[in-house]
Design a protein that fits this description.
The complex is a heterodimer of chains A (about 230) and B (about 230). By secondary structure, chain A is mostly helical. Chain A contains 9 helices and no strands. Chain B is elongated and about 75 Å long. The chains are: A mainly alpha (about 230), B mainly alpha (about 230).
Chain lengths: ~230, ~230
């Protein structure tokens, strides 16, 4: 018990030490790195996944493929993909991390957006067509607005997944907040390890809660349809 | 370490195939040991998760106000990245399998509690009434009627939890207990030894798929009435 108490004290002391808040190895820079890598990955993944999801959802096809991809991705360890990519010409570092993260951000974005567009009420679509809307108009003015809550749910799931996986990148030469954990373990410095864990957990929770807020504002409580991803 | 290793790997002229029968043959014992640890960590974590999830779900059903905070807490726990959870646990529980099991068990709770609740909620009210009419007490009602009828939902949850857990065990490498993840990371540190990285990754994915199929079979076996 004594060690646990002193560990909390040491961790707080580590976090309050001004030295840990400056320079390349400082918390602000690592946080920025983490957020940049994560945001780029979610952005790129959205550019890839959303058009495909909208198209497939609009023509109401590809459901089996999309949910199969989503289920299969759960069986693939994120850590293994980071290491596998490092052994290919993609290599490692922050750019390689983004590539790996995109792979894991695509399935939840794809599934949610696909289901969101596909499950728009048929009667609503018929009414829209009856008003003389073209297919593209139906997609833009009817299906996408109605699918928005689920699209947001996909972004939320993908973002939380990506923030978690970006942490692991520290073990394959990447930056971000995971560095504190990797270096803490490496130097057998428990205060640094726990401080890193607390910072990462805080970032993940802030991501989850703020995006959940956005999602709630966009729709009335429709839940994510993507299977839970690996934390 | 990264840049120098990259240079080393790139300048290496020796072949570095992804698939190597020699690697598997020469290291079969290490591979089997890692696989065994991987299976043990998964089974223990999911079993512990289920042992916790069933009573928690029963409590939440008995005291309805518990449902939201319980699922909320499990959801928040699930949001914490595994590496962060291991980092916070490790200084207390050490570089041990216990650390991995504690972390992974807590991740199974969200899916398991949710599915046990969904299964119990799905038991038709008239079935419960009929069982009561036959004179069943609450204990027998639960064991003989409600839990069996909830079984498909529960097992669906166990399948999801198992597949995710198999993938997550690899992160245990940071506390030196990552099953096949140990080999993956060893391959990384061993000048990006592709055969080792690929073999361990493939085994890990295969393990998840086999576990999923086995559980599907178990579900069919235990719930013959649910067969379509």
């Amino acid at each position: 018990m004594g060690t646990a108490v002193s560990l909390v004290g040491d961790t707080v002391a580590w976090l309050l030490d001004g030295e840990h808040w400056t320079g390349t190895d400082g918390v602000p820079n690592r946080l920025l790195e983490h957020v940049q890598v994560s945001a780029s990955a979610v952005g790129i993944a959205a550019l890839i996944a959303l058009p495909i999801a909208f198209l497939l959802g609009h023509v109401r096809r590809g459901g089996g493929l999309v949910s199969g991809l989503s289920n299969a991705s759960r069986a693939v360890p994120t850590f293994a993909v980071l290491v596998l990519l490092a052994a290919t010409p993609v290599g490692f570092g922050n750019r390689a991390t983004v590539v790996a993260l995109v792979l894991f951000a695509v399935p939840p974005l794809l599934t949610n957006a696909h289901v969101g567009v596909r499950d728009v009420d048929r009667e609503v679509l018929e009414a829209a067509r009856g008003m003389g809307m073209t297919g593209l108009q139906v997609l833009r003015r009817v299906e996408l607005p109605l699918a928005l809550p689920l699209i947001a749910a996909g972004v939320r799931t993908a973002a939380v997944q990506v923030v978690a996986t970006a942490t692991l990148a520290a073990y394959v030469g990447g930056g971000g907040l995971g560095r504190f954990i990797a270096d803490g373990f490496g130097r057998a410095d428990p205060a640094m390890t726990v401080a890193g864990g607390v910072l990462v957990a805080a970032l993940a929770l802030v991501t989850e809660l703020s995006l959940a807020g956005v999602q709630r504002r966009l729709g009335r409580g429709r839940q994510t349809v993507a299977p839970e991803v690996a934390p | 370490m990264a840049p120098s290793q990259l240079a080393q790997a790139q300048s290496q002229e020796a072949p570095n195939p992804w698939i190597s029968v020699d690697f598997v043959r020469d290291n079969s014992e290490a591979i089997l040991a890692a696989l065994r640890q991987h299976i043990t960590l998964t089974v223990v974590s999911v079993a512990l998760g289920l042992l916790l999830a069933v009573p928690l779900a029963l409590l939440a059903r008995r005291y309805g106000w518990l449902r939201t905070p319980l699922l909320g807490a499990a959801g928040l726990l699930y949001t914490i990245p595994s590496l962060a959870l291991f980092a916070v646990l490790a200084p207390v529980t050490g570089l041990t399998a216990t650390t991995v099991v504690l972390g992974l068990t807590s991740y199974t709770l969200l899916v398991l509690v949710r599915n046990v609740l969904a299964g119990l909620d799905g038991v038709p009210a008239d079935v419960v009434e009929a069982a009561r009419g036959m004179g069943m007490g609450p204990g027998r009602l639960l064991l003989r009627v409600e839990l069996p009828l909830a079984l498909p939902a529960v097992l669906a949850g166990v399948r999801i939890a198992t597949v995710s857990t198999v993938a997550l065990v690899t992160v245990g490498v940071v506390v030196s207990n990552g099953g096949l993840g140990q080999l993956i990371f060893e391959g990384f540190n061993n000048n990006l030894y592709r055969a080792e990285i690929f073999t361990a990754t493939a085994l890990c994915v295969a393990l998840a798929l086999v576990a999923d199929l086995l559980l599907l079979g178990l579900e069919r076996l235990l719930t013959p009435w649910a067969r379509r």
